[in-house]
Each structure stands twice: as C-alpha cells, then as structure tokens.
UniProtKB/TrEMBL annotation:
Lipid bilayer topology: Lipid-anchor
Domain (Outer membrane lipoprotein BamD-like): residue spans on this chain: 40-233
InterPro entries: BamD (IPR017689), BamD-like (IPR039565), TPR-like_helical_dom_sf (IPR011990)
Annotated signal peptide: none
Family, as annotated: Belongs to the BamD family.
Role: Part of the outer membrane protein assembly complex, which is involved in assembly and insertion of beta-barrel proteins into the outer membrane.
SUPFAM superfamilies registered for this protein in UniProt: TPR-like
Protein name, UniProt field: Outer membrane protein assembly factor BamD
Gene name in the database record: bamD
Length: 282
C-alpha cells in the first residue's frame, strides 16, 4: 500500500461502515461501547478509512488502533499503525501522531512506508511552529526530524518536501531572532539587539533575514560607538546585498555620518567579511 498520497480505499468500505456504525447515534458519540471483537481486521480497517472519508479522523484513529490491538499479527496491523499516525495528524493530535509514526519506524524500519512515517513525525513538530510563540524547542525538533527524512530517505518522494519545510523552519528561527533583536533595538538596548542580529548573520546566513540583520548591526554598532564594526557590516552588505533596500539605508546612514563602507578593525564581522567576500576561511 502506498500511503504517501493519502489512505488507501477499499470497495467494501461503505458497506462495512454501515455494519460497524450501528447508526452512529447521530455521529456525535464515539464508538466506545462497540464490540470490535465481533469484526475482522479488514472490516475494522475499512471502517477507519470510511471515517477518514467523512472527515472523522478521531474515530478513524480509534478503529485503526483497534486493528493493531486485536489483530497484531495480521497484514492489516502494520498498515493500521501508519494510518493511526495519519488520522491523528488530521485530527491535530500531534503527540499521538508522533507516537504512532515512531512506533512504525521502530517496528518496520525497512518498510517502504518508513519514509512516510518519518515525514509524518517531522510534520507533527513542523505544523505546530506557528503556535508556539517564542518557544523554539519544537522548531528545533522539526529541523532534526526533517533532516532525518532528507538523510535517511533521500530518494523518497518526501525528501523534496522535507527540504522545503526544513528551509522554512530554518528561516522561522532566524525570524524569531530578528523579532527579538528589533524589540531590544526599539528600547535602545543596543548591545542585546546586536547579539541577536549577530546570531542571524553567523548562524542563519542563508536565510532571507541576513540583509536586514546586517543593517540592524550598522544601526546598533553606530549607537554603541563601534564604528569599525558598523563599517564592516556595511561593507558586507555592499558586496553581497547591494540591490536591497537595506544596503541603501546602510549607505545613507554611514555616509551621512562621514564614514565609508569598508571592512575595518579585527572584530567578529571582519571574519565574516573574509569568508563571504574574500572567500578565505582561515
């Protein structure tokens, strides 16, 4: 079964759904009192698929869990584990989705759907990134899990999607550093602001936030009286991001104070200048 494009469908699912539903009590009550032992693994599995089609992922996960519990050695049991991960993810129950996906990876590491299980595990972190405010723990977890997809399953259909999400999560971390840096900058805490912008320049050079971070360093260092550092940040902007508004603003700010945009001094930015502009790493 190929899970990547969604759950498989069986022709008899609708019919068995009626048998298992028992009219579903208005479909508002879960089937806690249903005796699953009266049905085969295939019948219960098809019920889960039917619930997914009706957009009832919580009920679907319950059915797939029963397949795994009642028929652990059947052909449907393995499929039920990955379908639990899928259904729980649809229900936004990320902890349970992650647990099911990890269980699949542990039990069936060589299976063709192991890549999808790893991808679902990564999504269980990734899809919460926008919900966690300033706490970046889940973003780091997402990056680690996405890297697993990319490195362990480079030829799978999920590798490219994982790479894209990895870049977006990486960019998200940089954006949070920028947000905090701007917060300090607005409150004239220039030293704290510069430390945040430095993280972006040093650790997130490939993200879209680097040009602004360099400009904010120009602002911060000028305010602190660190002219050499400000000039060097401007020089890096001039060489690598000349077409951006951030370079234009840095040029106006520095030249307006009578400074040129050239690498100066022996600070940490001089090392960045050697690496990114001169191509010297030692």
């Amino acid at each position: 079964m190929t899970i990547g494009k969604g759950p498989a469908r069986f022709a008899g699912a609708a019919l068995m759904a009626l048998v298992l539903a028992g009219c579903d009590g208005g479909e508002s009550v879960e089937r806690g009192n249903l005796n699953y032992e009266n049905f085969t693994a295939k019948q219960i599995f098809e019920r889960g698929e039917y619930d997914l089609e009706r957009d009832k992922p919580k009920l679907a996960a319950q059915s797939f869990a029963e397949v795994e519990r009642l028929y652990p050695y059947s052909a449907f049991a393995k499929r039920a584990v990955i379908m639990q991960a899928f259904a729980y993810h649809r229900d936004r129950n990320y902890a349970e989705s992650r647990a099911a996906a990890q269980r699949y990876i542990d039990f069936y590491p060589a299976d063709e759907d192991a890549a999808y299980a790893q991808y679902l595990l990564a999504l269980s972190y990734y899809d919460q990134i926008d919900e966690i405010g300033r706490d970046q723990k889940l973003t780091f977890e997402a990056l680690q899990a996405l890297r697993e997809v990319i490195e362990r399953y480079p030829e799978s259909q999920y590798a490219n999607a994982a790479r894209l999400k990895f870049d977006l999560a990486y960019d998200h971390l940089a954006s949070k550093e920028m947000e905090i840096g701007r917060y300090y900058l607005k409150r004239d805490n220039f030293s704290a602001a510069a430390s945040r912008f430095r993280i972006v320049v040093e650790d997130f050079q490939t993200t879209s936030h680097t040009p602004e971070a360099l400009y904010r360093l120009v602002e911060s260092y000028l305010s602190l009286g660190f002219v050499d550092e400000a000039r060097t940040a401007g020089a890096i902007l001039g060489h690598n991001f000349r077409g951006t508004e951030w370079y234009q603003d840095a040029y106006a700010l520095l030249t307006g104070k009578g400074y040129t945009l050239e690498a100066a001094g022996d600070g940490w930015l001089r090392g960045i200048y050697r690496q990114t502009v001169l191509g010297r790493w030692l």
